[in-house]
Amino acid sequence: MKKILITGGAGFIGSHLIRLFVNKYPDYQIYNLDKLTYAGNLENLKDIEKMPNYKFILGDIVDGDFIMNLFKKESFDGVIHLAAESHVDRSITNPMEFIMTNIVGTVNLLNAAKYIWKDNLEGKRFYHVSTDEVYGSLGDTGFFYEDTAYAPHSPYSASKASSDHLVRAYHDTFGLPIIISNCSNNYGQNQFPEKLIPLFINNIRHNKPLPVYGKGVNVRDWLYVVDHASAIDVIYHNGPDGETFNIGGHNEWKNIDLIKVLIKVVDKKLGREPGSSEKLITYVTDRAGHDLRYAIDSSKLQNELGWTPSLQFEEGIEKTVDWYLENQQWLDNVTSGNYKKYYDEMYGNR
Ligand code: NAD
Ligand code: TYD
């Protein structure tokens, strides 16, 4: 059995990836290593937690000794690294958490993989999951390509850029078999409701203000989270060593236009006059260093590895709104902090 370590598997994207791998690859033993920060929620994985090829490990990637001992004990064949501090606004208030987890944590994993794979690299792979935000900000036109120069602006994107450089350095210096992907903004079920889409769905439902940063003119390129997971699967298994792939769905939206679509969909589903919740839109002070536009060119992934997104945005947003409206309990648990009890109930006496 191949042993695959997925870090950050209790988070938004990680939980979708764990579900995909546990169900699709019964001959892989999947280890989910997660510190369960505020963003880690094991309730996301309720449906697969009892599968025989799944194991949860509570741990911090910043703890180098713990990581080295874990790798020596389990001898993983592959690593898919998603654990990170991921919210730009939090990186503005507390950059150091981002430096520790995103940079130091990544180097601890690289060192441990380098150590246990030193005698045999056959079939080994270190996959680093990154973001398009490392490329900085675009003007009104153009796209990010795999060879676009890095120009991060927030402490979050600078810490991810730094980790990308270190992963490449371990490939070039030590021959570590690595692969990297840089994906655009994800949306879908189980996203922590501090990010735009789940926050706004929840606020519309509860008639709370919708805080739009600046003039709402910033553009993001949105991809359904299940499609990000399927891209990681394809790249992990078929991408050539040392390569980088951009992942995105050619789906650009100006924030204010996306928010108005979201309002219409939620209003309709709640039996309100579609658009009536636009009165909740509240323009607030802009985010410091707010990148104007992100847009990904993912033709390398599409042409070389045959990946395509599975659904159109309209369908994805309907599914997403349905999920949050039907899972108010999940949202309530997250906003009240109750989700933290789940670990104790599930794993507390093991
Ligand atoms: P998330 O914040 O929802 O989840 C992060 C997970 O990492 C959580 O479960 C958390 O508990 C865990 N974690 C944090 N610090 C840890 C530590 N020190 N040790 C162990 N575990 C720790 O993030 P996400 O949105 O799922 O993003 C996952 C990855 O994908 C990140 O690397 C992020 O940079 C990247 N990414 C995210 C997006 C997006 O739109 N969300 C887009 C492109 C790339
Ligand atoms: P976010 O979901 O935080 O993702 P990122 O900053 O990584 O792109 O934000 C998406 C966009 O929405 C971004 O341009 C900032 C904006 N935004 C708001 O206008 N109001 C909000 O309350 C939030 C969370 C984001």
Task: Write a structural description.
- With 350 residues, this protein is of the alpha/beta class.
- The chain contains twelve helices and twelve strands.
- The strands form three sheets. A seven-stranded parallel β-sheet has the order 3-2-1-4-5-6-10, sandwiched between helices. It has a three-stranded mixed β-sheet with strand order 7-9-11. Strands 8-12 form a two-stranded parallel ribbon.
- The chain is globular and about 65 Å long.
- Helices cover 42% and strands 17% of the residues.
- The site of nicotinamide-adenine-dinucleotide has 30 residues, from α1, α4, β5 and β7.
The H-level CATH homologous superfamily of the domain at 2-186 and 223-247, spelled out, is NAD(P)-binding Rossmann-like Domain
> Which blocks of ≥5 consecutive residues have pLDDT under 50?
none
The helix tally amounts to 12
Question: What's the CATH architecture of the domain at 2-186 and 223-247?
Answer: 3-Layer(aba) Sandwich
Overall average pLDDT: 96
Bound molecules: nicotinamide-adenine-dinucleotide, thymidine-5'-diphosphate
Distance between the termini: 24 Å
Helix content estimate: 40-55%
| Strand line-up of the largest beta sheet | 3-2-1-4-5-6-10
Rg value: 20 Å
Number of strands: 12
What proportion of the residues form beta strands (DSSP E)?
15-25%
Estimated structural class: alpha/beta
Biggest pleated-sheet summary: 7 strands, parallel
If you consult CATH, what is the topology of the domain at 2-186 and 223-247? Rossmann fold
Query: In CATH, what is the class of the domain at 2-186 and 223-247?
Result: Alpha Beta
- Write down the overall geometry: globular
The SSE order reads: EHEEHEHHEHEEHEEHEEHEHHHH
